[in-house]
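A favour, since you know our structure tokens better than I do. Would you make up a two-line entry for one protein for me to read? Write everything out right here, beneath this request.
=====
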Amino acid sequence: MKILIANIGSTSLKWRLFDFSNGAETLLHKGGFERVTDYPKAIEDCLAQLKDAKAIANENELAAVGFKTVIAKNVTGCVRLDERVLKAMEDYNGLAPAHNPPYITGIRLFSKRVPSVPLVGLFETAFYQFAPEPMMRYAVPDAWHDIGVRRWGFHGASHKFIAERSAELLGRKDVARRAQNLYVDGGKSPVEGAPFRVISCHLGGSSSITGIVNGVAIGNSLGMSPQSGLPHNNRVGDLDAEALPYVVKTLGLSIEEAQRQFAKEGGLKGLAGGLSNDIRDIQEAASKGNAKAQLALDVFVSEARRWIGGYFFQMNGADAIVFTAGIGENRAELRAAICANLDELGIVLDAEKNAATRATEAVISSPSSKVKVLVIPTNEELVVARETKRLLEKR
């Protein structure tokens, strides 16, 4: 069983091809294109690369094409991407304007190019289906909630991978099994012993923090849209609801222009005075004394600590804090800042291990640390491929 995972951006196409034959999980091929302007050609070139690499002989070898879809109205989980689902995605284009439109376009193009191959989406909201309702509600009238004004949570594939892998690494096979089977039995797999509590920190161009108990999410820092939560590379993150009308009236902006600035000029870029939305540029500028760049880093760290602290309190502590994604896996300085002066909470980094760890699995906490701190590179594509395989086998 060969499953192609297509990751579609507004100007990019990246892919990984997995083979699940004979019970294995083998990565056969991966690649990608940036600055894509002709998606039909990019898809054709992707398939050509797979053939040239002898990963497939023809498109009919593909059991499915899987997509890391983001959000759709009244749809979540792992589903076949038919017109009903695509229409539900279109209904929420406004909540994910940088994600949904290119995905919808790409899915339709794949459908035309490989019409006999099933197309499957694992929605980013899926991991939060089983979270406690109080953690997912906003304090709004019922009529608002009924049309979808609630916390949905995102980065579900990444946090689900961390739920599984952290349990495996720390000897909790029972919890790993529950996380693996989450979309099959809704988190009913048996767990033995004390609760296993993980705070998963997906820190990158887009960032979120999730509390996980026994492999099941209790909430996510992202709310109704990917615009919320921590500051992102150029998206503002959490913001008071009165900010939008205030900015529109005071600066004379249209709602559309204000939304554009929230999405394109905010976040780390906005805090750094428009310098850059790349954390590497911001760190370099801060090291040279740029006060706004340092402020951007300080706000990012402060917000990460706020969300970690919230889940720490909610779960009565944590067995592990896990850093993943581009910043979490690679920026030791920010990991150190987020974990600084937390010894009273049982969180103590090993400075040498932390400094030496980059994009590889490692425990970076001190042996004396009550809470284990880990770096685990995420593998969202593998999660999507696994769930796509499950869906195909159910039918």
